[in-house]
Amino acid sequence: MKKTFFIILASLFSLGMSAEKVEIHTPHNSLVLDIWKGGEPKFVYYGARLSESDLASLPNPTNANWSHLEIYPAFGATHTQSETAFAMKHVDGNMSTQLLVEDYKKTPITDKAPNGATRSGELLTITMKDPLYPNIVNLYYQTYNDVDMIECWTDITNNEKSTVTLTQFYSSVLPIRRNNVYCHHFHGSWASEAQLTAEKLNNGVLVIKNKDGARNATSDRQEVMFSLDGKGQENSGDVIGAALMYSGNYRIMVDTDDSEFHYFFAGINPDNSEYHLKKGEKFTTPHVAYTFSSEGLSGASRNYHKWARNYELRHGNKERDILLNSWEGVYFDINQKGMDQMMADIASMGGELFVMDDGWFGDKYPRKVDNSSLGDWVVDKNKLPEGIEGLLRDAKKNKVRFGIWIEPEMANTTSELYEAHPDWIIKAPGREPVLGRGGTQVVLDLSNPKVQDFVFGIVDNLLTKYPEIAYIKWDANAPVMNFGSQYLSAAEQSHLYIKYHEGLIKVCERIRAKYPDVVIQDCASGGGRANYALLPYFDEFWVSDNTDALQRIYMQWGTSYFFPAIAMASHISAVPNHAVFRTTSLKLRCDVAMSGRLGMEIQPKNMTDEEKALCRQAIADYKTIRPIVQFGDLYRLHSPYEGDNLASLMYVSENKNKAVFYWFKLETFKDEHFPCVKMAGLDPNKQYKVHELNRIDNKPLDCEGKSYSGAYLMANGLEMPYSHIVDHNKQNDWSSRVISLEAQ
Predict the structure, then answer these.
(1) Would you say residue 14 has pLDDT above 60?
(2) Whose CA is closest to 241, among 164, 322, 197, 302?
(3) Residue in 46, 584, 505 with CA at minimum distance from that of residue 262
(4) Who contacts 581 (Cβ-Cβ below 8 Å, separation ≥6)?
(5) What H or E segment, with its residue span, contains residue 393?
(6) Beta-bridge mates of residue 186
(7) Contacts of 98 (CB under 8 A, 6+ apart)
(8) Which of 86, 481, 508, 663 has the lowest CB atom count within 10 Å?
(9) CA 730, 736, 738: angle at the middle one, nearest 5?
(10) Angle at Cα 59 formed by Cα 56 and Cα 64, nearest 5°?
(11) What distance in Å separates the CA atoms of residue 75 and residue 130, rounded to the nearest whole number?
(12) DSSP label at residue 730
C-alpha cells in the first residue's frame, strides 16, 4: 500500500480498558479513531483508504514523544497545558470539564444535502459526558459514498439545573504528524481577495481568524490545505484539505508544541461570543469538511469541487448563463432607455442574461449615490417610469433574462426604513451608531425575528410581484462596525455575532423553500462571503470587485483551491480598470474571464465594433467549452505565485474526451524564458486535436489542427509563442492562449 504520513502511535488503553479501532471511509480516504467507553476518543489515522489487513495491523500505542491525540479535548480536568477544543463554566462555577465516551455508533444515512440534493453515506456518532455533570456532547463524523469528503461537527446539550456558559467551542481537532508540513492558506482585502500564502509549519501557533461580524472571506479565509511532504505540488504529493463551513466570525489554529504533531483546530471565534446555554438547550457547531488526496493540491481541489457541485452549491450541476452586469458600465446612472440598450447589446454579443445593479430604488430618498435609500426597496419612478414591468418587457423583447441587485441586510440612516425602525440596526447600547459606506450605512440586526421577516419580504415581494426575475445579486457592503443588539437581552449580548448568522441562514432557508429555482449571486463587497455555509443557498459568488485581468489571475487561482469554476463569477471589464487603473488587452481580459463563469462588467456602447466582435467570438467559444469549465476536473499547472511571470491551468471532462488549456503571460520583459507547461489529467492513450479559441493572431499556431497523444501532452506540453502575431498598430505587452483539446 502507498506510504502514508498518518500512522499514529496513540494510547489504546486507559484505566485498563481496551479500545476499538473505528474506521469510517469514503471511496479513497480512511479515518481511524480509538474509541472506548469511559475514555477519551483518540486519533489514529487519516489518509489513503486502508485495506482490511492494514487496518487490522495498525500499531498499538506507546504514547511516545508525549503526543496527545484526543480528538475533542476539554479544558480543566486533564487538559490544562495543551490547547483544547472545548471549555465551559458550569452552574456551580466549576470551569473544568472532562468528556468521556458513553457510547458510539455508526449508522448508514440517506438524507438531503443543504442544497437539496440526496446524499448517502455513514454517520459516526460519539456521545461524551462529564462524570460530574449531566451535559452531553456529541461528536459527529459524516462520510459520503461518492465523494472523498468527511464532515465533522459537535453539539452540546445542557442538562444542568440552569444556564451554563460556553467559552470555547471548536468544531473539530485533527492531529497532523510532523514531516516537513506546509500550510497553504489565503489572505486578502477588498479588491485583493484569496491571495495564496504557503508556509512551513514550525513550533508555535498559526492563527487564521475573522472578526468582521457580517462577512468572513474578504480578508483571511477559513479554508486551508496541508502539504504533508514538503512544499505543495499541484498534481503530486499527499495533501489534507480542511474547510470550515461557517458564515460568521471564525478562528482556525494550528498548534505545534513539543510533541510529534501539529494540531489543527477550527470553529466559531469565541472572542466576545461566550454563549449562555439554557437548561435543555442544544448548541451546534459548524461543520468542518476534510479531504485527503495523494494527487497534490489540485487533487484536493478536485475533491472539493465535486462535493460542492453535487451537494453544497445551489444548482451545482446546471450551466450558468453568460451575463452583463450594469455596475461598472453605468454605476448609479440607471434609466429605462439605458437598461434597454445594455440588454440589446449583450444579446447581440450572444449573452443570455442582463443584471441591473445598484441605483434603481428609493422614493422619498432616491438612490443617486451610496449614502441613502438602503432599506427602501421601491422603484425610483423618476429613473424607471415603467418600473420593473418595463424592464421585464424589454428583456423579453431582447431575448435575455433579467436580474436585479439588492442589499437586504443593510440600511442607510437616510432612509424611510431607518426613520420607522431605528431599533432594527446593530449598535452599542446607549451609543450613537457607527456609520459605514457613504457616511450613513448601518447593518440590520438579523438576530431580531422582525428583521428576518423584513429581509425575507424584500425577496418575497420582488419574486411574487415579478416572477420573471431570473437572477438576484445579493450584496453586503458593511461589517459589524459597533457591537450591540437592541433586540437581544442584556444577558445575551455576547450572542450577537452567532445569532446574526443563525438569522441569515433562517432567511436563506425560507427563500429557497419558496423560490428554489431563482439564481442568486452571493456578493459582499466582492468575495466577502465565499464560504460553504452560504453556498447551498446561492448559485455563485462575486470573486472580487477588482476585475483587472492580471490580478484576477492570482485571485481566481487562490479561490480555485476550494471553489469550482461554476461558482466563480468572472467578468470582462473596461480599461483602465476601475479598481487598479491598469490597461490590459481585451484578449487577456476575455481569456481570464473564460476560465470562470463568464460575464461582462462594461458599458457596451463605449466599445468599438472590433471590440464587440472579439467579445462576441469569446462568448461563442466559451459556449463550446462551458460544460468542461463548469463541470470538468481542474488541474492547476503552473502557479502565478512562482514568480516567473507565467500561469497555466486546464479543465478536463470526466470522460477525458475534451479539455481546455489556459496559458497566461503575466509580464513582458527582454530576454524572457518560460518553461513549456506540461499538461495533466488527459488519457495517455487518446489522441487530442488542438484548436485555439478566441484567436487574434494573423496566422494560426504551429500546433493548430494537429493531434497529439495524451501521453505526449502530459510529458512535453505545447510551446506557446510569447507574443501575438498581429498588425503593428495592435501589438501590446500582453499574451494569453486558450486551447481546446478534443479526443479523436
Answers:
(1) no
(2) 302
(3) 46
(4) none
(5) helix 387-398
(6) 196
(7) 74, 76, 77, 78, 130, 131, 132
(8) 481
(9) 120
(10) 160
(11) 12
(12) G
Q: Which residues contact 481 (CB under 8 A, 6 or more apart)?
A: 433, 434, 435, 436, 443
Q: Is pLDDT at 208 greater than 80 in this prediction?
A: yes
| pLDDT, average across residues 679-691 | 98
Query: How far apart, in whole angstroms, are the C-alpha atoms of residue 590 and residue 734?
Result: 12
Q: Which CATH superfamily is domain 329-630 in?
A: Aldolase class I (3.20.20.70)
Rounded distance between C-alpha atoms, residue 237 and residue 634, angstroms: 16
- For 278-364, strand residue ranges (E) read 282-284, 287-293, 323-325, 353-356
Per-residue pLDDT band at 209 (split at 50, 70, 90): very high
Q: Distance between CA 267 and CA 171 in Å, rounded? A: 5
Taken in order 427, 430, 431, 432, the sign of the CA dihedral is: positive
The span from the CA of 446 to the CA of 449, in Å, is 7
d(CA 89, CA 392) in angstroms, rounded, equals 57
User: Is the confidence at residue 1, as pLDDT, over 50?
Assistant: no
* Residue 59, preceding peptide bond in cis (omega within 30° of 0): no
Q: Cα separation of 280 and 161, whole Å?
A: 9
Angle between helix axes 387-398 and 336-348 (nearest 10 degrees) is: 20
pLDDT (tens digit per residue) in 568-606: 999 999 999 999 999 999 999 999 999 999 999 999 999
**Side chain identity at residue 162, one-letter code:** S
Mean pLDDT estimate for the chain: 96
By three-state DSSP, how is residue 571 classified?
strand
Integer Cα distance of 69 and 57 in angstroms: 19
Mean pLDDT of 430-434: 96
Nearest to residue 286, comparing CAs of 111, 495, 43, 501?
A: 501
From CA 75, how far away is CA 681, in angstroms rounded?
47
What kind and span of H or E run contains 651?
A: strand 646-652
Predicted TM-score of the model (pTM): 0.97
CA distances to 103, 349, 369, 539 from 319, in Å: 45, 18, 34, 10
**Residue % of the chain over a pLDDT of 70:** 97
Residues 483-520 have pLDDT tens digits of 999 999 999 999 999 999 999 999 999 999 999 999 99
Domain ranges of the chain: 75-312, 329-630, 636-743
Mean pLDDT (whole number) for 462-479: 98
> What's the CATH architecture for 75-312?
Distorted Sandwich (2.70)
Dihedral (CA of 343, 348, 351, 352) sign: positive
- pLDDT by residue (tens digit) across 32-57? 999 999 999 999 999 999 999 999 99
Q: How many residues does the chain have?
A: 744
